[in-house]
Design a protein that fits this description.
Elements lengths: L2 H17 L14 H10 L4 E2 H8 L3 H13 L3 E6 L2 E9 L1 H22 L4 H22 L1 E4 L5 H17 L22 E8 L2 E9 L6 E8 L8 H15 L4 E6 L4 H9 L3 E3 L10 E6 L3
Helix pairs in contact: 2-4
Length: 295
């Protein structure tokens, strides 16, 4: 742990929580704390599923239920099954809730301007640019990467998204039936692993590695969604796959890729991969890479 960096983050957190009014019991003078106001905002005029709110805000079920009950008690929100399906609950704003949401929206604009107004023009621009960069990095830090069964619906969704993405970018499209097959059993420990990247419980990336005795580990299906592209998520997935293989005794890893995946090519080269002769007959591959792994 870098104590100086940790101290800097803590100073930043204290400044931000004070400046945005997170410590106030009556956020923006509306008689409720920030957590309730934020939940009201997230429900919005169109309503929202309770499960989606929980994932989006990173709240446990008990805390979210307490917040919703408070808003219900204030006559601002109703919670009911979606279309009669008791398994899915939807939170909706009442007429009073919509009026409160509109007022909160207006006051939020005014508060944002109160942050910018004391600064001269160039400093306003600097602050907004810095906020945008901090937001991007905070989002990147919120992405989690964990092993996931390849048959999990989230894993399947990522693989389908991967196929759609490469089909759009490859010269002749992409037909999974013509590509070298990768079976679920090859990506299930101990034969391999499938890693899933999620942001607010939503899948945003994936990658896998096959561990066959006697040959280098092979990385497959590295993909990230547009929502997190450019945030370093692909490199994190790659690093995790390398560590997984190294921890299980594989001294090297290899992979193949298509010439049109320019970002992937740049990532592999910057990560220390060296181009090698073809080691398979993958129809869609133009480049083959290998890398020695640290023990």
């Amino acid at each position: 742990m870098d104590t100086e960096l940790v101290a800097a983050v803590r100073r930043f957190n204290r400044t931000v929580t004070q400046r945005v009014g997170a410590l106030d019991d009556a956020y923006m003078a509306r008689g409720r704390p920030l957590a309730q106001a934020r939940l009201l905002w997230e429900i919005g005029p169109d309503g929202a599923e309770v499960a989606a709110l929980r994932a989006r805000l990173g709240l446990d079920s008990g805390h979210l239920s307490r917040l919703l009950r408070t808003l219900e008690g204030d006559g601002l929100v109703t919670v009911a099954p979606a279309g009669g399906d008791g398994r899915v609950r939807v939170a909706s704003l009442t007429d009073a809730g919509r009026a409160e949401w509109t007022e909160l929206d207006k006051r939020s604009d005014a508060f944002a301007w109160s942050v910018l107004e004391p600064l001269a023009g160039p400093r306003r621009t600097r602050l907004v640019a810095a906020m945008a960069e901090v937001e991007r990095l905070l989002v990147a830090s919120m992405v989690t990467i964990e092993p996931c069964p390849p048959g999990d619906p989230r894993a399947r969704a990522c693989v389908r998204a991967y196929a759609r993405d490469v089909a759009r970018r490859f010269d002749d499209g992409f037909d999974p039936a013509l590509s070298s097959p990768v079976g679920d059993e090859e990506l299930t420990p101990p034969a391999g692993v499938f890693l899933l990247a999620t942001l607010n419980a939503e899948p945003v990336g994936c990658g896998a590695v096959k561990l066959r005795p006697g040959v280098p580990a092979e990385i497959k299906r590295v993909w990230v969604s547009d929502a997190v592209r450019g945030l370093g998520v692909g490199r994190r997935i790659l690093d995790e796959l390398e560590r997984y293989a190294a921890a299980r005794g594989w001294p090297a890893v290899r992979l193949d890729t298509n010439r049109n995946l320019t970002e992937a090519l740049a990532m592999y080269r910057s990560a220390g991969y060296q181009e090698i002769e073809p080691y398979n007959t993958e129809r869609y591959a133009h480049h083959w890479f290998a890398k020695r792994l640290a023990p």
